Amino acid sequence: MNTKQDFIAVFDSGVGGISVLRHLRRLMPGERYLYFGDSANAPYGSRTTEEVRALTLAAVEKLLEAYRIKALVIACNTATAAAVKNVREKYPELIVVGIEPALKVAADHFPGGRVGVMATEVTLREEKFDTLLHRFDESCSVAKIPAPGLVELIEHGKGDSEEAEALLNRILTPYRDTLDALVLGCTHYPFAQKAIGHILGERVVLLDGGSGTARETKRRLEAAGLLENGPGQVVITNSLEDEAVIRLSYRLLET
Fold first, then answer.
1. What SS3 class is residue 38?
2. In what order do the strands lie in the sheet with 7-12?
């Protein structure tokens, strides 16, 4: 049986989910967080759906065997799209919260507007995203924008580098002066937000789904009577078992 003192596990394909962990910690600073990044298998966005599903299920099984966990946050748009349904079916007793691109927020704020969704290839091709897209494509014009290569740069701590800006220039230049908002549909992308904003300009609003995921996690914990208000703790682990990756993760958490 779960207790308030058990961990909230936060899972991502690499360091990107740290952007969601930041939202969680701001909203619920008294919780104990266990972060697991699967950087050894990153990026998920260029893998098949079946590969992403298998990697996600294996990671969740490993976490549940090693730690007492009261909730699981899948802080990866690609893993959520490919596997959240399977995780919920396999572990019906566990609170499982996924993340999805903040398209509803964009549509609500810019009715009739022009919205870009920048995400990985897997996220953009999954049925879950297609269903989300069709809920809002009549209220706003939506452009799908894949960003191959960006996750790899962020995994190496280069989200704010000249290299990242050059890559983003190639990806986003066709959309300059055409968008009202850009939805960051991968949890890695907030770590390149400065470069993205510089290319698109201040007029374009950048949105991500991290805050909504944090609010839903809090709501589910409150409903289950498992919300904790202790001293707070963050434990970061990674499949690479590389101290440089762990240091990068803690640095990103504090940015």
1. coil
2. 95-97, 69-74, 7-12, 32-37, 233-238
Q: Are 150 and 184 in contact (CB under 8 A)?
A: no
Q: What angle do CA 9, 183, 244 make, to 5 degrees?
A: 45
Catalytic entry in 186, 204, 207, 226: 186
Among this protein's residues, is 140 annotated catalytic? Answer: no
Q: Is residue 18 within 8 Å of residue 24, measured between CB atoms?
A: no
CA 129 to chain centre: 14
For a pLDDT cut of 70, what percent of the chain falls above it? 100
Residue with tokens 């960003």: 147
| Per-residue tokens: 220 | 């589910």
- The answer, yes or no, to whether residue 53 has pLDDT greater than 90, is yes
Helix (H, G, I), strand (E, B) or coil at 2: coil
Tell if the pTM clears 0.90, that is, is over it: yes
Q: Which of 9, 18, 76, 142 is catalytic?
A: 76
Q: What is the dihedral of CA 109, 110, 112, 114, to 10 degrees?
A: -140
> Is residue 133 pLDDT above 90, yes or no?
no
- The two three-digit tokens of residue 41, written as one number: 């298998």
In sequence order, which ranges of 91-231 are alpha helices (DSSP H)? 103-109, 121-125, 127-136, 150-155, 162-172, 193-200, 210-224
Structure tokens at 72: 């699981």
* Structure token pair of residue 196: 């993205």
Residue 128: exposed, middle, or buried by beta-carbon count in 10 A (0-12, 13-18, 19+)? middle
